[in-house]
Design a protein that fits this description.
- The structure is a single chain.
- The chain has a 6-stranded parallel β-sheet with strand order 3-2-1-4-5-6. It has a two-stranded parallel sheet with strand order 7-8.
- With about 250 residues, the protein is of the alpha/beta class.
- It has 12 helices and 8 strands.
- It has a domain at about 65-180: NAD(P)-binding Rossmann-like Domain (Rossmann fold, 3-Layer(aba) Sandwich), CATH 3.40.50.
Length: about 250
């Protein structure tokens, strides 16, 4: 497949590496221009391009930018054909993105993104730490394989995203439509907790929309106030502890 990735951070770069390894043709862009990521792109096996070039002549566009930067991509995506699948990997964190009233009042993050960029998205790869994506993928059928949720309103686009999730080493769980994608947002039991398929389904069902933002903010506060950097395992354990059903 021909894939354009906008965002060269940990998630975007890791996705590029894995998709190139699968045999896909990948272009990658960032906000500063292709010359700033040429070495990275060469290492990944991808092609460094501008944002505008990243969305041309591709079947899939993956947006992996800080949440509040998504609206800046509206003009870049305006001419992209409607059959191109657009995947959103971002998450809203008020301490970083600034308060967004609509989301604070309950609008699911990816619906907000869809409205701002002018086209529907599929929400995938948002509910995992970058280290999980880079280090914990397993072949299909492996016992204990981690699952991640994929939400969206278009069945064809969602199935495409789910196939890519499987390629990157994880079981893909159909998490329903974007209206319910809040169930995989920060502060929920499904978010960054490294669960297998059955447990992830239970976690999505257990999500509490009113409680999730409080748990999200409590977790971030705890991580930022920790006296020493937490290990990956400690972060996962803490996420599970705070968001567990009470």
């Amino acid at each position: 497949m021909k894939i354009g990735i906008i965002g060269s951070g940990n998630i975007g770069a890791t996705l590029a590496r894995k998709l190139v390894a699968h045999g896909d043709e990948v272009k990658i862009a960032n906000s500063r221009g292709p010359e700033t990521i040429r070495d990275l792109a060469q290492e990944l096996g991808a092609t460094a391009v501008s944002k505008e070039q990243a969305v041309k002549d591709v079947e899939i566009v993956i947006l992996s930018v800080p949440f509040a930067k998504n609206p800046d991509l509206a003009s870049v995506l305006s001419g992209v054909p409607t059959d191109v699948v657009v995947i959103d990997t971002s998450n809203y964190y008020p301490f970083r993105d600034g308060a967004i009233t609509e989301i604070d009042n309950g609008k699911p993050e990816s619906i907000w993104v869809s409205e701002r960029i002018g086209r529907p998205v599929i929400k995938a790869w948002n509910a995992m730490l970058s280290a999980t994506l880079s280090e914990k993928g397993m072949p299909q059928g492996t016992k204990g394989r981690i699952a991640i949720p994929v939400a969206g309103d278009n069945a064809r686009a969602k199935n495409t995203a789910m196939r890519l999730v499987e390629i990157t080493g994880f079981d893909a769980l159909d998490a329903g439509d974007l209206a319910n994608s809040w169930r995989q947002q920060p502060g929920t039991p499904a978010y960054c907790t490294e669960l297998t398929l059955p447990d992830l389904q239970d976690a999505l069902s257990a999500a509490d929309k009113a409680r999730a933002p409080r748990d999200r903010d409590a977790l971030i506060k705890g991580f930022m106030e920790a006296k020493a950097p937490l290990s990956h395992e400690q972060i996962i354990a803490r996420n599970r502890e705070v968001t567990a059903r009470r």
